[in-house]
Specification:
single chain; 124 residues; mainly beta; Immunoglobulin-like; 3-stranded antiparallel sheet; 10 strands; 0% helix
């Protein structure tokens, strides 16, 4: 109880067009999140005791570097926060939903991308 670690959700726009992204991160029951680098716009308490944090962000499109020997420049959003295990018992392993990003392409078609799910493991 009270163990914590810093985490980062990273979103990168690989497309050439600017657009908006809606990013959601769900923290499993028994854990809490704090010290956000970017405060969430929406916080939702879920029926299973988990909590979902949501951000809306405008992202620029990818740009070629003037020097063709250099990599393409991508717009990137890093959201860092501290995750703390608050539950009195360890519970073994808790799994949160994978971070979700809702976005639209240059043709206006909507898409969803998923990250790697958050796994919180504690050993006694």
């Amino acid at each position: 109880m009270g163990e914590s670690t810093d985490l980062t959700v990273q979103v990168v726009n690989l497309g050439r067009g600017a657009g908006s992204a809606i990013v959601s991160e769900t923290i499993p029951a028994g854990a809490s999140a704090s010290d956000f680098s970017l405060e969430p716009g929406i916080i939702t308490d879920n029926a299973d005791g988990s909590r979902t944090y949501t951000w809306a962000w405008k992202m620029g499109g990818a740009e070629d570097n003037g020097d063709l020997s250099q990599p393409t420049i991508y717009d990137r959003l890093d959201i860092t926060y501290t995750l703390t295990w608050e539950a009195a018992d360890c519970g073994g392993r808790s799994i949160g939903a994978a971070p979700r990003v809702d976005w639209s392409d240059s043709d206006g078609l909507s898409h969803i991308s998923w990250g790697t799910e958050l796994v919180v493991a504690c050993c006694q």
